[in-house]
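Hi U.,

Before I forget, here's the chain from the pilot set. I'm dumping it here mostly so it's searchable later in email.
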Amino acid sequence: MARGWAKGDPGPETGDARLSPVFVLRARGVNLQIAWTASADAMNEERTVTRPGLADTLRQRTRALHAEAEKSGIVSDILRGRASRHACAVYLRNLFAAYQALEAGLNQHRETAGIRRLASFRFQRARALADDLDRLCGEGWAAALPLLPAGEAYGQRVAAVAASDANRLLAHAYTRYLADLNGGAVMRRILAGALATDGASLSFLDFGTDAEAKGLAARYRQAIDEAGGEVADWTPVIDEAAMAFRLNIALSRAVRAMAASAAAGPQIGDGGEGGHGNP
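Structure:
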């Protein structure tokens, strides 16, 4: 007997292998296998389309911590135009350790699957931040401005991740660089007011025009998603992103506490309040 469809069955031109139980149940021989294969392929395709990328997953899973970070410590004071020049300088000095460790780790793993896509951007924010601090505070800023325990812990954590589980660097790259790309222009204007300087002295937040920064942020998000495709288990990356936000919050609170207690080293400039409010 010739193989085919029973009378009244939907054929391949009119039937839908994903939706038609008649096609699956009543087709003969090899056609049954084709029906099941088509159905599985369709379901796989739907799962692929609806699954969020790594960047969006990190954003969703750290949303509450992100909001807390913006409302905590010196970051909150900076965004409200209430931070002193000295406090802002100390904050930048303590971020330097994290940028330095992150960029050393990305360079170390520049050929590692999951990291190589991000390493190719070569932002070099640590070098730019060091140059900014030279202009703002003089070449002796590393000794004049305190490295707080919270800032040291942040840098050490990033360095430890680079030495043990390179995939977790994705979380720190997401936390630092996407924040800089998405909010760098606004933060640069506010910090320039607090530090009584022009934007040229904050080159570590310079990513070109607003359009250029927006395009770079989109490409970086895509690179994070592509890197996620090379990482089998996202759970350690998500956990590390939460840790990165907690480290940022701890540092922000530590700088505010230092400023409030006047326990830091010599003040830089007049220590006056910044002149910018929320954008």
